[in-house]
Amino acid sequence: MNINSRGLDLIKKCEGLRLKAYLDSAGAPTIGYGHTGPDVRLGMTITEEEAERLLLMDVASAERAVTRQVRVTLTENQFSALVSFVFNVGSRALTASTLLRKLNKGKYLEAADEFLKWNKATVRGKLTVLPGLTSRRAMERALFLSYGWGGSTKTS
Fold first, then answer.
1. pLDDT tens-digit series, residues 3-13
2. If you ran DSSP here, which 8-state letter would residue 122 be given?
3. CA distances, 111 to each of 3, 10, 19, 99 (Å)
4. pLDDT for 85-106, tens place per residue?
């Protein structure tokens, strides 16, 4: 399964497009639509086309992580919400999450509520609620709970 347009639009809206590298709220060098990694250095610039390529590469990685870890049937929107979540927090965070444990037990509504708990980041050494993350998690939860076009599909 692949992320749908609603999920991709959610990521783009939440991440924003920055063509010049900057430090994100956690202090990581970031460029494009939230791309981080050893290939990002402060001062570098990219084109919109490069940002799109990096986004699709990062999304593909998040899709693989969701597919590997989720053992229940998902709608396209549920899958896409989870991909957005993993894109932002990483696959290791999903692995250790109560969200994944509840989801894999078939507790979809309880799993949806777990999105809302992931609204904090370490800023200047202190765990802080970030309004942008609060908003993003609400949007991911809403997408997760909305009808997914194309019916249900098993991820693995």
1. 999 999 999 99
2. E
3. 19, 19, 35, 5
4. 999 999 999 999 999 999 999 9
